[in-house]
């Protein structure tokens, strides 16, 4: 199930909230677990077994790690075993076909692809399990003694499907005992509605523009159109993903959990280093915590550090999908981050702000082209169009003007929402009582508008056919 | 900012909205058909282990919630309003043009497939050398009123499409280009198309009829031989339904009567008859264009006879029997055709299950007319039932 669906919004959520808050506190974890499993099973009933099996295995690994505090060798074996099992599961379901395909290409063999559907959220929950096991091993956190609490941690529906990747330590205490308050609940609602609006009103609509542009032949695209397209995609992926994180964080609050932030206005970055501190923060910190630092981080000389950057970014790339373009995308950022570390940051610091931002945005946009085209030929075709290197390149055509005239208002809204400039007048107004009421009204109006767009998505007139 | 006072408002506002919608969803009567969209709605849910495991239950449940959503059609309107408010001139593929005109743009056809299709039409008709055959291609409104499209909006040239098809047509098949027949009249006050629908108006159909008759060497009836009456002035058709724009104006449906002929219609689909080319009951429904011929049927036979008035005026049928293979553009056209043909067979291959070739063998006719609008002709390519 996804948050931005009518069935979630008007059936699953109200029913679960009602059950959750009408039962005594000690039963709430049971309700939450059952709700989460229904949520998960909705899209893929079979893989629920995998989720429960992996959860139970890691629960026992965690407890075993807790018991054998004396024997260091045993503990090493346990943590290695658990991490390997998690990686094997992830590797099998996510990368098996990719490996087979490449083996076939390389060796000329013809091993048949497995074509298994990807278990939903597997990239996220295996990473959460690993963070738990490693933290227990490092004695940063106590092993969870209750299977129920651990199962709630792994399967918690707000973050199960698309993050944020919640490290166990963040919510360990909340798994046992949660604070509930009306203000927190209301904050959750507001956050959820803003996330829903980001997804439904902003991401989906600008996504239509990207869909139209990307479905055209790249040699037909005017230069401006190609740029407009990738800008549209940059907005789409940001508002889609950060909207999802907002909804997750909001739902967490509504059920009594406080997750960490996952995005911090990434397009305000003045360098790529800064961009990655603002974009998908939970993934970045996971790789830092469980890959970069264990490899030695930056404490063993520049050469080792650059090697570590390379490893982390290759993995970050491939984590986004089993395809070469994601590897390329990771390497692209590894290269930029290395250059920034070596000299670019110092150089940038001497440039005017506007230049720093332009530099960052330009590299981010080029990065999205690598990200979005799994087919390398299409990718190079799109780059060709952006650079105007095709045969009869034009800067601007009627079609681009038409799209611009249609999307100009939305684009303006997107820029404002992505950059979120602060005006002191507005800030002062917001804390006044009138401001609070207006803000409430805006949130409710956004909710109704989101519902309208979701209902409209089912609008499917068959004007000619009835059979 | 959320404080203790506004927190309550958020709580009641949010849970109130989603809770109320849930209650209404459960309590409101279920609709099984949407006249608005002209399709079946998901109105039942069956739960079984099988449907749970193959995910069909999840899919059906999602369709169910969407299709039975409380006040469903009002939400469409709200969305369309928001789209219009952000200066979007296209909604669900329909363009909001000037002078209250709505349009649907044509996409570039996949020419390889169209060429194959025209070839197979040539072959089929080649088997009936005795039948005089004509292809009449009608433009849709977007071709004739390009200046009313939103600025910079583009549509594939239907003239180019029509000329390319004509060039490939076998010599045996006569061609009438509807664009040439209608274009000279676009500046007239009288509209050739409905502004809210994808069909041509009776006047547009009349102009095409006149061109077709001239091609056959028959004198068409002149406009002043018809008594023109307005049968509806509240018509909002498919473009309106799809586009949902606010601030559009309803269209007028006109009927042209010469009084020379009386028509009897036999509808093979459900073995029924009508004594008129028009079905008044359709005017109270959403899709009022179905007034003509009572809407889409797979197979009809229309028998025409002269009335006393027709006999007195010395009117005569020039053609004894004719087969019209068509899309719904023919519905407004056939009343004019009926002035000249004693027996008209009407086949809509999109719904006709039999073989057209077989039908033509069993029902030999003098004259064959293929009547399509250009986008339907190139996109659906259903004429021969090749897909079956």
UniProtKB/TrEMBL annotation, chain A:
Subcellular locations according to the entry: Cell membrane
Molecular functions per Gene Ontology: acyltransferase activity
GO cellular component, one term: plasma membrane
Any single GO BP term: alginic acid biosynthetic process
Ranges annotated as spanning the membrane: 6-23, 30-57, 77-96, 146-169, 221-239, 322-342, 354-373, 404-425, 437-455
UniProt entry keywords in alphabetical sequence: Acyltransferase, Cell membrane, Membrane, Transferase, Transmembrane, Transmembrane helix
Pfam family, one: MBOAT
InterPro entries: Ac/AlaTfrase_AlgI/DltB, AlgI, MB_O-acyltransferase, MBOAT_fam
Membrane-topology descriptor: Multi-pass membrane protein
Primary localisation category: membrane
Family the UniProt entry places it in: Belongs to the membrane-bound acyltransferase family.
Protein name, as recorded: Alginate regulatory protein
Lineage of origin: Bacteria, Bacillati, Bacillota, Bacilli, Bacillales
From TrEMBL, chain B:
Protein name per its UniProtKB record: AlgX/AlgJ SGNH hydrolase-like domain-containing protein
Organism in which the protein naturally occurs: Paenibacillus montaniterrae
């Amino acid at each position: 199930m996804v948050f931005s669906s009518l069935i979630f919004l008007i059936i699953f959520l109200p029913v679960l909230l009602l059950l959750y808050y009408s039962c005594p506190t000690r039963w709430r974890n049971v309700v939450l677990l059952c709700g989460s499993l229904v949520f998960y099973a909705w899209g893929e009933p079979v893989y629920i077994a995998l989720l429960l099996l992996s959860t139970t295995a890691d629960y026992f690994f965690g407890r075993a790690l807790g018991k054998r505090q004396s024997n260091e060798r045993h503990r090493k074996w346990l943590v290695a075993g658990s991490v390997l099992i998690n990686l094997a599961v992830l590797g099998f379901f996510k990368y098996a076909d990719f490996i087979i395909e490449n083996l076939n290409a390389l060796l000329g063999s013809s091993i048949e692809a497995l074509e298994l559907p990807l278990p939903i959220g597997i990239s996220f929950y295996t990473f959460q399990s690993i963070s738990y096991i490693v933290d227990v091993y490092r004695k940063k956190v106590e092993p969870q003694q209750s299977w129920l609490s651990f199962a709630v941690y792994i399967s918690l529906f707000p973050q199960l499907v698309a993050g944020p990747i919640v490290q166990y330590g963040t919510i360990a205490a909340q798994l046992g005992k949660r604070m509930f308050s009306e203000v927190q609940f209301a904050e959750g609602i507001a956050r959820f509605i803003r996330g829903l609006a980001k997804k439904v009103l902003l991401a989906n609509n600008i996504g239509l523009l990207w869909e139209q542009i990307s479905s055209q032949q790249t040699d037909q695209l005017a230069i401006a159109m190609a740029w407009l397209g990738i800008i549209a995609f940059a907005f789409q992926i940001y508002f889609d993903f950060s909207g999802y994180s907002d909804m997750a964080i909001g739902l967490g609050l509504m059920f009594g959990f406080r997750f960490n932030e996952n995005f911090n206005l990434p397009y305000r970055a003045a360098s790529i280093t800064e961009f990655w501190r603002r974009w998908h923060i939970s993934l970045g910190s996971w790789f830092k915590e469980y890959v970069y630092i264990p490899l030695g981080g930056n404490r063993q000389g520049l050469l080792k550090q650059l090697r570590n950057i390379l490893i982390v970014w290759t993995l970050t790339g491939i984590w986004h999908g089993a395809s070469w373009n994601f590897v390329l995308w990771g390497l692209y950022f590894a290269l930029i981050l290395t250059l920034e570390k070596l000299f670019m940051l110092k150089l940038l610091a001497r440039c005017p702000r506007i230049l720093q931002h332009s530099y960052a945005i330009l590299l981010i946009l080029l990065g999205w082209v690598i990200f979005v085209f799994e087919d390398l030929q299409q990718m190079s075709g799109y780059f060709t169009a952006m650079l105007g290197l095709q045969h009869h390149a034009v800067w601007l055509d009627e079609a681009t003007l038409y799209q611009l005239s249609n999307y100009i208002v939305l684009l303006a809204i997107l820029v404002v929402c992505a950059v979120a400039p602060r005006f002191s007048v507005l800030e002062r107004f917001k804390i006044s009582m009138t401001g609070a009421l207006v803000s409430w009204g805006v949130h409710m109006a956004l909710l109704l508008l989101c519902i309208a767009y979701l209902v409209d998505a089912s609008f499917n007139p068959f004007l000619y056919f009835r059979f | 900012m959320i404080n203790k006072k506004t927190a309550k408002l958020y709580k009641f506002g949010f849970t109130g909205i989603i809770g109320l919608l849930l209650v209404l969803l459960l309590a409101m009567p279920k609709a099984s058909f949407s006249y608005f969209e002209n399709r079946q709605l998901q109105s039942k849910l069956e739960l079984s282990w099988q449907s749970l495991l193959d995910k069909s239950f999840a899919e059906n449940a999602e369709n169910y919630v969407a299709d039975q959503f409380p006040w469903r059609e009002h939400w469409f309107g709200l969305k369309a309003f928001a789209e219009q408010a952000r200066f979007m001139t296209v909604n669900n593929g329909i363009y909001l043009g000037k002078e209250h005109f709505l349009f649907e743009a044509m996409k570039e056809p996949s020419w390889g497939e169209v060429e194959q299709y025209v070839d197979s039409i040539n072959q089929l008709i080649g088997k009936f050398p005795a039948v005089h055959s004509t292809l009449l291609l009608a433009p849709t409104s977007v071709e004739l009123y390009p200046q009313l499209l939103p600025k910079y909006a583009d549509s594939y040239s239907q003239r180019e499409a029509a000329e390319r098809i004509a060039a490939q047509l076998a010599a045996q098949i006569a061609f009438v280009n509807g664009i040439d027949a209608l274009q000279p009249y676009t500046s007239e006050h009288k509209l050739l198309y409905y502004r809210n629908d994808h069909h041509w108006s009776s006047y547009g159909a009349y102009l095409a009829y006149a061109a077709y008759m001239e091609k056959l060497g028959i004198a068409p009836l002149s406009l002043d031989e018809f008594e023109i009456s307005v049968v509806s002035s509240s018509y909002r058709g498919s473009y309106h339904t799809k586009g949902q724009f606010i601030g559009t104006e309803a269209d007028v449906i006109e009927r042209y009567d010469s009084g020379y002929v009386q028509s009897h219609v036999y509808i093979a689909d459900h073995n029924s008859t009508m004594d008129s080319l028009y079905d008044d009951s359709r005017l109270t429904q959403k899709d009022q264009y179905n007034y003509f011929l009572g809407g889409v049927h797979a197979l009809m036979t229309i028998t025409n006879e002269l009335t006393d008035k027709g006999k007195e005026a010395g009117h005569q049928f020039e053609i004894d029997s004719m087969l019209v293979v068509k899309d719904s553009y023919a519905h407004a056209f056939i009343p004019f055709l009926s002035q000249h043909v004693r027996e008209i067979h009407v086949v809509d291959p999109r719904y006709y299950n039999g073989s057209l070739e077989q039908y033509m063998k069993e029902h030999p006719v003098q004259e064959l007319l293929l009547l399509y609008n250009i986008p339907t002709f190139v996109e659906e390519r259903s004429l021969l039932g090749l897909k079956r």
